[in-house]
Amino acid sequence: MGDSLSNLTLLMPWIFLGIGILASLLVSSIRIQTKNPAKFVTLATLGLVMISSVHLFGQETRTVLSGLIEVSPLTCMALFLISGISFLFVVGSSGYLNKEKLHISDYYNLLLLVVLGASVLVSAKDLFVMFIALEVMSLPAYALVGFRRNDPRSNEAALKYFILGGALGAVFLFGTSFVFGATGSTQLAQIFEWSKTYNGDLLLFVVGHLLVLFAFLFKVAAAPFHFWKPDVYEGAPISVTGLMATVITTAAFVVLMRLFHMVDFHTPIWEPYFESLKQMIRATAILSLLVGSTILILQKNLKRMLAYSSINHTGYLLLGVLGSLSHPEQAYSIWFYLVGYSIITSGLFLMLSQSETPNDQGLELIDLAGALKKNPLFATLASIFFFSMAGMPFTIGFFTKYTVFMSSISAGEVLLVIISAVCAVIASYGYLRPIALMVMRDPDPSSASFVSTMSNQTVVVFLAALCLILGVLPQTLIQITKGLELIP
Amino acid sequence: MESSQELTALLIVPFFASILAWFIPKTSQRLYALLLSAIHFATVIYVVSHASLAPGAGLEQTLPWLNDLGIQLQLRLDSVSVWFVLLGGFVSFAVLGLKGPWYRRHARLFTSLSFFLIFALNTAFMSTNLILFYLAYEAVFIPMILMVGIWGSNTKAASVFRFFLMSFFGSILMLVSIFYLSYLHYVKTGSFSTNLSDLMVLTSDPSISLSWCFAGFFLAFAIKVPLFPFHGWLKEVYVNAPTPATIWMSALLSKLGVFGFIRFIGPLFMSSMLEFQGTLLALATFTVIYAAFLAIQAKNPKALLAYSSISHLGFVMLGVFSLSDAGRTAAIVLCIGHGLTSTVMFYLLDLIDERKEGVTLEEYSGMAKKYPLLFVCFFIGVLSAVSLPGTFNFIGEFLVLLHAYPVSALCTILSGLGVIFGAVYMLKLYQRLGFGTHDEKVGEGTITRDIAGFDLVVVSLILGMIIYFGFQSSIFMGGIDHG
User: Fold this and answer.
1) Which residues does chain A have within 8 Å of residue B160's beta carbon, measured at their own beta carbons?
2) Are B157 and A436 a contacting pair at CB < 8 A?
3) Which partner for B79 in A405, B302, B376, B481 could form a disulfide, CB atoms 3.0-4.6 Å apart?
C-alpha cells in the first residue's frame, strides 16, 4: 500500500483532532468575558470529526501509514460514536462544569486528547500503535478523573486509576514483546497470516496474547479486573465518569474484538487454545454478570451503582464476543450493543449532572425520591433510561440484549444465556429501585434537587427520544452494524 | 385464514390515544379516556364483525418489522383471540370511567399509560410471533408497575418489587426458551424464525427433547395466571393497586397467562403437556382449593376477592389442562365470565370503599341499609361469583367440570368442592359488608349517596351481560374453536 499524499484525506478525522487540540491550547489563553473559547473549538473539532467519519464511512476499507491504521466502516462508525457522544457531553455538561467551577480550558484540551487516543485506538492495526493510543487516551483521562483538585476522593480515584492503568499498560507492552518474539511482527494482519501457517510451539504466543487481552479486559472492567471501577466512577467529576463509561468502553471493546480475532482459529493447530480461550471468556462473562448484577442492587450511591451496572453490561458484551468467535457475522451484536449502551449511559450521566448537590460523588439513590412530584420531566426521562438499562421492550435496551443473546445462542451457549437471563432479572431490581423511589416516595426536603440548563435538557431529551425510537425501529441501525466487517 | 389490513387499527388506535393524551387538558382527561376507549371498543367490534369464527378461519396480517432479527408483526385474530380482545375493549371502557385519585394526580400520565396498556394487550392477544408476543407481554409491566407505584396505597414498594421480579423472572426464561427454539430452527433449516407456525413444525418432531423449553414457558405463564405455588406476588399487589390496575390485572393480565397456555404451550409442547398432565391437573385443583381457603380466612375485602380470583383461575386452568378442545372452549368461556365478574366486583368494591374508610371486613359492616341499590348490584355480582345457575360463570364452571371429568374424576370432584367454598367466602363477604350493625367509629367516605349516574349504567350493563350470557351461552359455544 503506497502512501501518497491523497491518502491524507483518509486521515482527515485524526488531522482535524490534532489541529483542534493545538487550536484549543492556543485559545486557552484568551478569555472573552464568561465564554470559554476552548469549548467552541472543541465543539467545532468534534463536529468536523463526525462529518469526516460519515464521509469516509461509504468508502471501501483501506489501510494507511504502512498498514498501521485502518480506515474501514467499522473504524468510521466507532469514530462517529466516540466523537458524537463526546460532542453531546461537551454540550450537555457546561452547566455542571460551571457549578463545580471546573469550567476551564484545560478540561477541553484533555478531553480532546482522550478523544484523539480513543479514535486512534479504534483504527489501530498494530500492537505498538495500540499501546501509544492507549496511553494517549489514558493519561489525560487520569488527569480528568483527578480534575477536582481539592477533593480527596477525586485525587484518590485518579491515583488508583493511574497506578493500575499504568501497570496494565506495562502488561500490554510485555505481552506485545512476547507476541513479537513469537511471530516476528506487531501488525495484526501479519500475525493473522503467520497463524495460518505456523506449526510449532504455541506457548510464547499464547502468553503474549493473554497478556495483551488482560490489559484491555482491565480497561473495560470485566470481572475479575473490575475493582478499580466503582472507586474511580465515584471520585471522578460526573461528566468525566460519563465519558469514561461510553467513549473509553467503546474504544476498548473495538480493540478487544480485534485482539480476540488476532489469530485464525479455524486452523487446526489453534483448536485447543481456542477452546480454552472460550472457556476463559465464559468465566469472565459469568463473573462480570454476577458481580455486576448482585453488587449493583446493594449500592446506595448512584455513581457506584452505575459502575456496577457497566460491569454487568461488560458481561453481556462478552456474551456477544463469544458468539462472534464462533460466527464472525454475529459481531454486529457488539457494535449494536455499544451504540445502545452509549446512548443510555450518556443520557443517564447527563441527567445526574443536573444535580444541585455540590459534591456529586455523594449523590445517593435516595436523592431521587419524590422526583415525580418535584420535577415530572426529570422523572419521566430518567425512567426511560432506567427501563432501558433493564432491557424493557420498546426501548433500545431490549434489542441490545436481544442481539447478544441471539449471538451467543447461535454459538450454542445455552447455559450461559440462562445464567445471564437470571442476572438480568437481578439487575432489573436495581434499575427498578430508582424508578420506584422517583414515583412512589414523597419528596424529602434533604434530597437533592435537579435543575437543568437548556442545553443539557435538549441533549437529554434527544437521547431519550433516540432510546425510544431505536427501541421501536432499530432496523436501520442493525443494518448499518451488520455491514461492519471485522477485518483481521 | 384471510388477510386483512384492519388488524393494525387495533394497535394504532390505542397507541395514538396514548400519545394524544399528553395534549389534552388535565381536567378533561376522564372524558377523553372514555371517548377514546369507546372509539377503541367500536373499532374492536368493527374488526371482529369482519372476522369469521369458523374453525381454522380468522383474520391475519403480516407486516415487515425487523426482518434482520427474524421478528415480524404477525397478527392473527381468530376464534381464540377474538374473545380476549373483545373482553379487553369492554373492560377498558368500564375501567376508565372510574373516578379516583388517578384523575386528580398526574392525570395525563394515567390516561397515557392506560392506552399503552391496551395497546400492549391487543398486541399480545393477536401476536403469532413469539418474540412479538414476548415484547408485548413484557411491555404490559411498565404501565402496571407505574400505576401501582404512583396511585397505589402506602405499603406498595415491596409488593411492586415482588410482582415485577417474579413476573420478569418467568418471562425472561421464556425468552431464553424462545431463543432456543429459534436456534433449533436455525440448526434444522439454516434460518432463525420465531413464527408460531414454523416452530410448530419444528416441535412436532418427536426426536427433539423440549422439556426445558416447556419449563421456561410454563413458568412464565404459571406466574402470570397464577397457579399455586407461584401466586405469592398477587395478594399484595391486588390490595395495594389502584382499582383500575386491579381490574386490569384480574380481568385481563391473568388471562394473558391463560391465553399463553392455549395459544403457545398447547400447540408447541403438546407432548410435554401430555407427559405432565397429571401434575398439571393436580396443581390446578390444588390452586382452586388452596386459594378458596385463603379467601375464607382473608380479613380485607380486596384480598378476599384477590384469592377468589386465583381460585376461579384454577378452574380455568383445569379446563385448559384437560387438553381437549371442549375443555379449552369451556376455559375460554369461564375466562370471559370471570373477566366480567371480577371487573364488576372490584368496581363495586371501589364504590363501597369511597363510602366508608374501612380496612377489615368488620369495619365495613351494615352498609346495605344505607346504600340499598349499591348492595343489590353487589348481590348480583356475588351470585355470579359463586356460579349460580343463570349466571355466565355457571356455564363456564359447569362446562369445565364436565370436560375435566373424563380426564380425572378425582380432580373434578375435589375442584367441585371449590364451588362450595366459593359460596362460603362470597356470602361471608356480602354478609359482613352489607349486614350487621353499622360501626360508627369507622369514618364515612367522601361520598354518601347511593350508586347513580355513570357508575350505575356501567355496573348494570355488566350485570346484564352476565345474566344474558348465562342464558344465551350458545353464542360462545359456536364461536370458539381451536383449529
Assistant:
1) 432, 436, 440
2) yes
3) B481
Is B186 in Cβ contact with A410 (below 8 Å)? yes
Does residue A316 fall inside a structural domain? yes
The three three-digit cell numbers of residue B361, written as one number = 371486613
Domains of chain B by residue range: 276-483
Residue whose C-alpha cell is 437481578: A426
Residue from A394, A422, A433 whose CB has the most chain B CBs within 10 Å, to mutate? A394
Q: B135–A422: do the CB atoms touch at under 8 Å?
A: no
Surface of A (389-408) touching B: CB under 8 A? 392-394, 398-399, 402-403, 405-406
ipTM of the complex: 0.84
- pLDDT tens across B430-483, in order? 888 878 776 666 667 777 777 778 888 888 888 888 888 888 777 666 555 443
A440 interaction partners in chain B (CB closer than 8 Å) = 149-150, 152, 156-157, 160
- Please report the number of interchain residue pairs, chain A to chain B, with beta-carbon separation below 8 angstroms: 91
Query: Looking at CA atoms only, how far is residue A436 from chain B in angstroms?
Result: 7
Cα distances (Å, whole numbers) of residue B313 to B265, B334, B337, B397: 17, 9, 11, 10
H helix and E strand count, chain A: 21, 2
List, for residues A207-230, the tens digit of each pLDDT value. Answer: 999 999 999 999 899 988 888 999
Length of chain B: 483
pLDDT digits 0-9 by tens, B1-18: 667 778 888 888 899 988
Q: Cell triple for residue B286?
A: 390444588
pLDDT per position as a tens digit, B452-464: 788 888 888 888 8
* pLDDT number for residue B27: 84
The domain in which residue A184 lies consists of 13-482
Q: Given a cut of 70, is residue A6 above it in pLDDT?
A: no
Mark residue B317 as left, alpha or beta (left: phi above 0; alpha: psi -120 to 50; beta: remaining). Answer: alpha
Phi, psi dihedral angles at A32 (to 5 degrees):
-100, 105
Is A2 within a domain?
A: no
Q: What is the Cα–Cα distance from A350 to A457, expressed in whole angstroms? A: 9
Query: What are the chain B neighbours of A435 within 8 Å (beta carbons)?
Result: 145-146, 149
Residue A102 DSSP symbol? -
Nearest to B173 among A387, A406, A421 (CB): A421
CA A49 to CA A53: how far, in whole Å?
6
Cα–Cα nearest to B4, from B50, B56, B55, B60? B60
What's the rounded mean pLDDT across residues A44-60?
Answer: 90
**CA distance linking residue B378 with residue B386, whole number of Å:** 12
Please provide the average confidence, as pLDDT, over all residues in chain A. Answer: 88
Q: Which residue shows C-alpha cell 480528568?
A: A144
Q: For residue A437, is it within any domain?
A: yes
Q: Tell me the C-alpha distance between B68 and B63, whole Å.
A: 14
For strand B71-78 and strand B58-66, is the pairing parallel, antiparallel, or unpaired?
Answer: antiparallel
Average pLDDT over residues A60-72: 84
Element (DSSP H or E) covering residue A207: helix A203-219
Nearest CA in chain B to A435: B146
B-proximal residues of A, 419-448, CB under 8 Å: 421-422, 424-425, 428-429, 432, 435-436, 439-440
Distance (Å, whole) CA B93 – CA B137: 21
**Residue A58's pLDDT band (cuts 50, 70, 90):** confident
Give CA–CA dist A296/B308, Å, rounded.
38
Radius of gyration of the CA atoms of chain A, in A: 22
Domain membership of residue A3 (yes or no) is no
| pLDDT tens digits along B55-92 | 667 788 888 887 777 778 888 888 888 889 989 999 99
Q: B64 in helix, strand or coil?
A: strand
